[in-house]
Amino acid sequence: MFDQAESFVTADGRTIGSVMMEMKNITLRFGGVVAIKDISFDVREGEIRAIIGPNGAGKSSMLNVISGFYHPQEGEVWYKGARRPEMKPFEVARQGIARTFQNIALFEGMSVLDNVMTGRLNHMKSGILSQAIWYGKAEREETENRAVVERVIDFLEIQHIRKTPVSRLPYGLKKRVELARALAADPKLLLLDEPMAGMNVEEKEDMSRFILDVNDEFGTTIVLIEHDMGVVMDLSDRVVVMDYGKKIGDGPPDEVRNNQAVIDAYLGVAHD
Amino acid sequence: MFPDQFLFGVEVLLNGLMAGVLYALVALGFVLIFKASGIFNYAQGVMALFAALTLVGIMDGQVPFSHLINALFGTDVHHFGWHVPAFAAILLAMAVMVGLAWIVQYFIFRHLVGQEPIILFMATIGLAYFMEGFGDMMWGSEIKKLDVGIPQGGSFWIEEATAFLGGSNFYGFFIDQLDIVAAVVAIILVVLLVAFAQYTKQGRAMRAVADDHQAALSVGISLSFIWVLVWSLAGFVALVAGIMWGAKSGVQFSLSLIALKALPVLMLGGFTSIPGAIVGGLIVGVGEKLFEFLIGAPFLGGATENWFAYMLALVFLVFRPQGLFGEKIIERV
How many CB pairs under 8 A join A and B? Predict the structure, then answer.
């Protein structure tokens, strides 16, 4: 559709950069069940890329492939112009890819501040010994990282709950803390698995605003999965549509909205 | 002036506290591993034995596997003929425990990720018996004396300072110097462990892994590294416990059985709480000594120390299953 290396301007007048990540012919099976069947798509620098589709379409599986939790049987993942070897999730995270989870995976026993601080772990370089004794470099590092974390906390407007244990927070705020932790890692690519699932209208609006602000302010590339069509259409620059593990549409929201296969998948048409 | 009977009670209490500290040391090793990996490490006591054996072996310049070597090659080696100073030997023994942590992670638990707790538990039972045999093969099974320079015997200073409290038949409190050293070391150890967990990068990662594996992976924490770290820390705690118990009663097989005394300590303190292990240890130590003194010896024919801790733990299990400090167990319906 577009040249890989070239940037282009979307219908909304937003400039999208060159290809950052490319999924090539990904197939993922669990035993006999095919969760993802031969799907290819790319993610470009600075864009908000949505993956949509009905329940069980394989959207979360795709996100898990990107973040290294699942390993596809076939296909290749290309990141920053190089083929990525099979990686463990923590190695993917160290490459600058942060994520949130559909069912929220926070450290329930820790405070909000401590949770967000864990996002900085990979930016701390001090060795285990100087850490244990905690002098000089380690101390300076701690202060610097703390400053970054405080900025993220301000940005997502969760100052008032900084010291609160996460287990005491309501669902909507937990989602926001999880986003804060992902942001604290200063990611190149941010993966959001249903960031608005289970939220009320007001919370959804807040979250949409934060996602747009993150993209604007930090230039973070975002891949998100979402059920709510309205939200997806407003937020994203380009959309991949999945159904039964297959890709049935790919393009800007307006184009996808009028795609017959997509309409069928969402309204439900007998498959033959 | 206090009545002698009362003063004797106080002495029993003080000695109970000291014994409790030693129980707490062993319990601490259990808590570290259980918190970070959900593994109840039955081998913790054997680890203390193994650590102590290794320490003595290094200090005396013993040739490891000497029986095996002699049997295979018809040689007669047993000692290198040198003596390693205590401090250097402790560092070397620690290095061995780190190596052991690595082996345990890479050859056993790496392959058991995501298994049922009972399977992990069985694996640690296997590990315990393997290490017991391996330790024997490496260093021999005879009872060894461990002397790292910790003073032993009653503290005259304390006896003289407290002698005025009682009448002419009271000579002051008798407290073993070794117990005092053990208490001080245990306190320092706990402060260091808590500081490590709270304020360092690895400590934070350790707490993160203890809380949620999936989330820990997503922020870039290597679970394998953390588990090796945790087993190393548990090995370190085992070494300290092994030194204290070994110096007290010699390095021998029964050392590994002190782990069983840590079980009631854990039930009291909770399996996931470091302060809980300490308080639990103190309660068991003081409880069993006082019970023996006040009720056991006069009314029940004595020897209640063998079972009192388990009885107390049973009562706790019924009324407060998560222990004093453990995380609350809430089951959602």
Answer: 85
Q: Best of B218, B225, B332 to disrupt the A interface by mutation (most A CBs within 10 Å)?
A: B218
Return the half-sphere exposure (C-beta side, CA atoms, 13 A cut-off) of residue B218: 31
Closest CA to A196 of A225, A218, A167: A225
Going along chain A from its start, the domains and CATH numbers come out as: 1-96+187-272 (3.40.50.300), 100-186 (3.40.50.300)
pTM of this prediction? Answer: 0.83
Q: Is the pLDDT of residue B235 over 90?
A: yes
CA distance A258 to chain B (A): 36
ipTM: 0.85
Alpha helices in A42-111 (DSSP H): 59-66, 89-94
Neighbours of A28 (CB within 10 A): 22
B205 contact residues in A (CB cutoff 8 A): 118, 121
B39: nearest Cα among B89, B97, B109, B99: B109
Q: Which of A98, A80, A81 is nearest to A89 (CA)?
A: A98
The residues, ordered by sequence, that sit 6+ positions from A15 with a Cβ below 8 Å of its Cβ are: A7, A8, A9, A46
Q: Do B219 and A93 touch (CB under 8 A)?
A: yes
Angle between helices B201-211 and B177-199 (to 10 degrees): 80
Compute the Cα dihedral for B315, B320, B326, B332 and give only its sign: positive
**B221 with A90: Cβ contact below 8 A:** yes
d(CA B250, CA B240): 14
CA–CA distance, A235 with A253 (Å, rounded to integer): 9
Alpha carbons A61 and B117: distance in angstroms, whole number: 27
Which segment of A115-119, A126-130, B267-271 scores lowest on mean pLDDT? A126-130
Residue B184: Cβ-neighbour burial (10 angstroms; 0-12, 13-18, 19+): exposed
Question: Sign of dihedral through CA atoms B311, B315, B318, B320?
Answer: negative
Summarize pLDDT for A78-96 with one digit per residue, the tens.
Answer: 999 899 999 999 999 999 9
A105, A124, A132 ranked by CB distance to B215: nearest: A105
Chain A residues at the B interface, defined by Cβ less than 8 Å, are 67, 69, 88-91, 93-94, 98-99, 101, 105-110, 114, 117-119, 121-122, 124, 126, 128, 131-132, 134, 138, 142, 181-182, 185
